[in-house]
Amino acid sequence: MRDAGGCRAPQARSLAPLKGRFWAAAAAKEQTYEYGSTRYLLLCGLGGMLSCGLTHTAVVPLDLVKCRMQVDPAKYKGIVSGFGVMVRDDGLRGLARGWAPTFLGYSLQGLFKFGLYEVFKMRYAELLGPEKAYRWRTGLYLAASAGAEFFADVALAPMEAVKVRIQTQPGFAGTLRAAAPRMYREEGPRAFYKGVAPLWLRQIPYTMMKFACFERTVEALYEHVVPKPQSQCTKAEQLAVTFVAGYIAGVFCAVVSHPADSVVSVLNKEKGSSALGVLQRLGFAGLWKGLFARIIMIGTLTALQWFIYDSVKVYFKLPRPPVAQAPKSPKKQK
Predict the structure, then answer these.
(1) Does residue 170 sit within a domain?
(2) How far is residue 123's CA from residue 119's CA, in Å, rounded to a whole number?
(3) Which one of 14, 15, 256, 334 is separated from 309 by 20 to 30 angstroms, measured CA to CA?
(4) Is residue 229 part of a domain?
(5) CATH classification at residue 201
(6) At 151, phi and psi to the nearest 5?
(7) For 228-255, what is each residue's pLDDT tens digit?
């Protein structure tokens, strides 16, 4: 018994460190998402797909009434009355009109928007160096987001054109499968990309404001509102800060991008129209039709997008860099 017991104890003791090393190795293996790695950037792109695709699809009814207020203000005079007109004309199912191109288009846009933003932000910061990257961080956010959105809109443009045609031209086609082939048959490839220039005019300022305003608002909230440093906040508290900062950024985004959004809506509705012709016809007042609906929609959208995007980062345990801080100068470190 003594021999048996004496044999077991050392065996148990020898297995304990092995077991500890096994779990440590497993934990280390889980944390393979190094900041800036390909896996990290792909997961950021996935977060962007989910955040943009899901949120834009969720607000299709509001987007629908906003588009119709822009292209037919005589019939759709307000948000509430506009919903009433749509339900009367198309039924409740009509409120989801255009959901498929919305989901596909904005999922692709989110992939490039968020994924490339992270790429450009890191690359520009590397080129500038720590001190200049901090000093010029607002410009860095603006440049990174503008570059990302340029490519994101090329991916979005075809589905955006289909969406607007379905939503604003009754009787044209009710589904993506019916609308896209008909547009190609009648107008060729130009039908899908004639709105890309106004889309850039709408989306690039919007995204520049969305990212730069969000980054600086998060920074301001942690500095002046949140009573403790970011490192001491729980994940839930950090996500709450993300949501608030996202909504604030969204309000500014809506105002900046609304005139171009009005042009895009009318342009994609009408065959053979040009951006300049639509702009002249709408006039200054016409460019701002539907702004209140857009503020509600974009404020909510932007807040939810940042919340979903950060939630994906939390779920996959992606490294979350701290809020921007001035780098310590070499003289002070000595």
Answers:
(1) yes
(2) 6
(3) 256
(4) yes
(5) 1.50.40.10
(6) -75, -35
(7) 988 898 999 999 999 999 999 999 888 8
